[in-house]
């Protein structure tokens, strides 16, 4: 008589033999192949040779596989073109000029037109304050020419700042 060993959880006792329950029992017949397929067999399955000669008739783009069935040819990819000098970094220097506040006096600055350090030249023009002063003097009775005095006073006129090198207008100070 054979000794029996039984576990109540995962095995079944039957005449001293241990077997797994359910679908874990082996099916009758050949169970495991004896050797893996050879290299030639493996390559022949994945290789799709082109037909030896063109077949007359409409071309469908299909290739006949080793089993005689028509299959799509494998996709071919072209090699990507390398970007010339992809690691090069273009350096561009940008000079940011602070906003300049123009007043009634010359200022030192870098001219944005000629890129030189300059001291601005001033030009005085009649502005809103000049015309208001002239109109108020007329209303007060200075019509005999005294109302035009604001056009001779620089403190009542607007100021234009020019570059002395390139004569470009750089900015304007408006009094009113």
From TrEMBL:
Localization:
Endosome membrane; Late endosome membrane; Lysosome membrane
Q: What main location does UniProt list?
A: membrane
InterPro entries from the UniProt entry: LITAF (IPR006629), LITAF_fam (IPR037519)
Output the SMART domains linked to this UniProt entry: LITAF
Question: What would you give as a GO molecular function for this chain, any one?
Answer: zinc ion binding
Assigned keywords, A-Z? Membrane, Metal-binding, Zinc
Alphabetical GO CC annotations of the entry are: cytoplasmic side of late endosome membrane; cytoplasmic side of lysosomal membrane; nucleus
Residues in LITAF domain copies: 91-175
Q: Which GO terms describe its biological process?
A: regulation of cytokine production
Membrane topology label: Peripheral membrane protein
Record-stated family: Belongs to the CDIP1/LITAF family.
Report what the protein is called: Lipopolysaccharide-induced tumor necrosis factor-alpha factor
Organism encoding this protein: Galemys pyrenaicus (Iberian desman)
